[in-house]
Amino acid sequence: MNHLETAPTPKNDPRLLESVQVIVLRPFCLHGQPLTKGTTVELPRYVAVDMITLGKAELVT
Question: H or E segment at 34?
């Protein structure tokens, strides 16, 4: 029996798919549309985390 056959199925946190609002700090494109500094947009949490890590967005509280 292969050890991969008994490995548990990974589970993603469902909160990653929730939408959050962020403020654009540095311009980036979303769905081919450029977003300018100061724009408030709604993104899935998994995308927002990446943009925040890159310094391109800030979470709206």
Answer: strand 33-35
pTM: 0.75
The C-alpha atoms of residue 1 and residue 5 are separated, in whole angstroms, by 7
Query: 48, 18 in Cβ contact below 8 A?
Result: no
Radius of gyration of the chain measured on its C-alpha atoms: 16
For the chain, the structural domain boundaries read 16-59
Which DSSP letter does residue 8 get?
P
pLDDT 10s digits, 9-50: 888 888 989 999 999 999 999 999 999 999 999 999 999 999
Reading phi first (left if > 0) and then psi (alpha if -120 to 50, else beta), residue 31 is in: left
